[in-house]
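Please go through this chain and its backbone structure tokens and walk me through the local backbone shapes. Keep your notes short.
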Amino acid sequence: MKALSLDLRQRIADALDAAQSQTSVAQRFDVSLSSVERLARKKRGGHSLEPGKSPGKKPLVEPEQHEAFAQLAASRTDWTLQTLAQAWQEHGGKALSQATTWRTLRRSGFSFKKSAALPVSEMKPSATPSASR
């Protein structure tokens, strides 16, 4: 869920300052009563009405590093995920798991499809046919 805009937060605070009830303010601006209560607490406590930081873990490879990661990945075509993660760490990045390496490759625009230039694998029998038939 996206945070309420600062403009809407300010209008809600102004309506509360004009002695309107929290329930009527919530209905007027089509927000939840708990959001109005939370903004009223912030205002009473002298805190900023700006939205807080979104929860979640910071990515190990920042979006501005994706181009460098893509250049490293494109430098050789025989990388495994593990060797690419090790090369990224030696390049000055953070240690990555194979899953994180894969997600970062996808975010960097890589897609892995079989090449039409590669020969089709042949069907080989797994054992010699029996002579008793």
Notes: The longest helix spans residues 6-17. Residues 63-107 form one domain. The radius of gyration is 28 Å. The chain is about 45% helix and 0% strand.
